[in-house]
Amino acid sequence: MPKRSDEMLMDLWLSLLLVWITCVPSVSMTPIIGQSKSTQTGGSAMVASGLGEGQRLLSRAKRGWVWNQMFVLEEFSGPDPILVGRLHTDKVQNDTARYSLSGEGAGTIFAINERTGDIHAMKRLDREEKAEYTLTAKVTNANTGQLLEPMTEFIIKVQDINDNAPKFTEGPYHADVEEMSAVGTSVITVTATDADDPVYGNSAKLVYSILEGQPYFSIDPNSATIRIALHGMDREMREDYQVVIQAKDMGGHMGGLSGTTTVSISLKDINDNPPKFSKSLYEFVIPEDLPIGKEGGKVKANDRDIGENAKSTYSIIEGDDQGVFEIITNTLTQEGILQLRKPLDYESRRNYTLKVEATNVRSEPRSNGPFKDTATVKIVVEDSDEPPVFSKPVYLLEVDENASINKIIGTVTARDPDSTGSSIRYFIDRHTDLERQFNINVEDGKITLAKPLDRETDMWHNITVTATEVRNHSQISRAVVAIRVMDINDNAPEFATEYEAFLCENGKPGQVIQTVSAVDKDDPIQGHYFDYRLVPEMLNNPNFTIKNNQDNSISVLAKHDTFRRQKQEMYFLPIIVTDNGNPPMSSTNTLTIRVCGCSKDGIVQSCNVEAYVLPIGLSMGALIAILACIILLLVIVVLFVTLRRHKNEPLIIKDDEDVRENIIRYDDEGGGEEDTEAFDIATLQNPDGINGYLPRKDIKPDLQFMPRAGQHSGPNGVDVDEFINVRLHEADNDPTAPPYDSIQIYGYEGRGSIAGSLSSLETASSDSDQNYDYLREWGPRFRRLGELYSVGESDRET
Description:
- Residues 90-168, 169-277, 278-390, 391-495, 495-617 form the Cadherin domain.
- The chain has 798 residues and is mostly beta strands.
- Helix content is 10%, strand content 33%.
- It has five helices and 45 strands.
- Strands 38, 40, 43, 44 and 45 form a five-stranded mixed beta sheet that branches. Strands 3-7-10-9 form a four-stranded antiparallel beta sheet, with no helix packed on it.
- The chain is extended and about 170 Å long.
């Protein structure tokens, strides 16, 4: 930023200082810069003087303190402290007055000469940081220390210089304005600020101007409002503009400081351009077999506008009197899609000429109406091999349900629409005729009956017939044939439900016992009418009669009141029901009538003969309830006794059954190995039969014992010693074994030995004939045994 030079400031201050010095010896004076305030105190006075710009005020000596605002220029950067002003009192004439300052910046920013009262600024000041300082002046007697004048505050104001350039605090700016806006249309208002004093001088007076952006825009120099300056600004020609705005202080005069900002201005689109087709004539070739709703061609009208202003709709305005075509708008691509509303036929018409119009969706108020454009569309229909065409899309046929096999029900017809023509073959889609109820002649399309019909089972049969060209089997058409089965009177009427009537013993003659109606599966055109009568054998029935209710129902009446259950509990009344068909059909239905005991109001209470012998006042329901209560009490008693007995049963069997401390005495002598009557020796001979396990009776096991893989006897020839060791190991590791000694039962006697029995009970020879030398061959264990026997034999001989 440009600033005033130090040399100019120094020259100004020196000139002021010389003027002030020349005036001091004769009279006290104060600068008149700012407003002064005088206070009469009587007696001598002290004068506080501030330097001004050459102006001064002569004061009388006999007055009190005279205080003025002192001024100091900001940003002063001379080699020596700048003199701000001088304090002076006239109460003493000698050099005994001492001056001092206190308050804001005293001693740091401002210093005072205690003898002369001169105040100097010691630092460079900035008005934008602090505009004024409040200080307190005090003058005392150097000898006594007493105040010579009352302490009084005064202000030192920092005088502004133009040291701050304008700033745009909110820039850069962005603005929008509609294209084609009138000259003078406001676009945006910008604002710049200047930190200098707006009151003193023109340092903060700003003037705005455009540096870049002319001749399109202008700006008001005072309000900073940017406006349109050029007529007919078109967005389609140019959309964005960069405008540079300058703010300059000092009222825009030479030497002022300035700041700039950029304003980005965009022209907003309006609907000022019509849609325009890319070409005036479109030509399309569309095959005649194009499906309805499928695309046949595209047209597009371009619009230089954007957004909603560029959207258009398409319509056919000429050439489609029959409504064969339609055109829709693709909202994404803004294209017009030409598609079919009705099928094309090459043989009837081969070309079309359409006139298509594109119209803007939005209209601009400043225009005379929505913009439009038109184009011509020529369509050539291309011949295609078309499938056969049925004479009807749906056929409705009727057939009687008693029709004979191979009876012709109806005929379907189809033709080849192509100019060349082709023979047609007809078939039934068997997926629609799973029962193969019908057949069709492949040549002429005649539909015949293949199986008997029953209207009561299926009233309608819907089948699909296909027609195929002989020369091109891929060309297939389908038609639906609905066949209605017509009713004939082939079902006899019958009771609507299985009726069971109840007759009270105390009933009156002529009382209605039951109302009976009938149903018929047939459905005659004139509706149903049923005739009821009793079978010929029951025409003179002494007990019952029937009455026609004239609504296809009858009432069964009792003829007397002497019905008793002891005499006859149940009656069967056969009734013949006949319909009005041609020929009429009839059936015999039996009505079951049960004689029951009723209350005085006629409410049925019991229909069983056994109930008649019950005591008076006790019905069958009450008897059943009593029996149920008795059975329930018996079940509760049995369960209670069973639970008590189960609870009192000890976990360990009684002492007399405990095998641990019992002595079992036998008073007979076994018969040896030949005795098979005393006990079942099969258990010892076949240990595999029980899998080597006998149940324990001395404890109640906590875990279910599961035989292990090792608990089975080996095949013939297993060593007894090995078997016992295995069983001993299993017994030691058995989790169900008690913690006390018990009897372990081993159901294994062995499979025999090659040495035979060691017992002498079966020895046929005497001791003297026995030779034990063979025992030495059995190993060390039997060698000693053989020696003992041999020694005993020799001793006996000696």
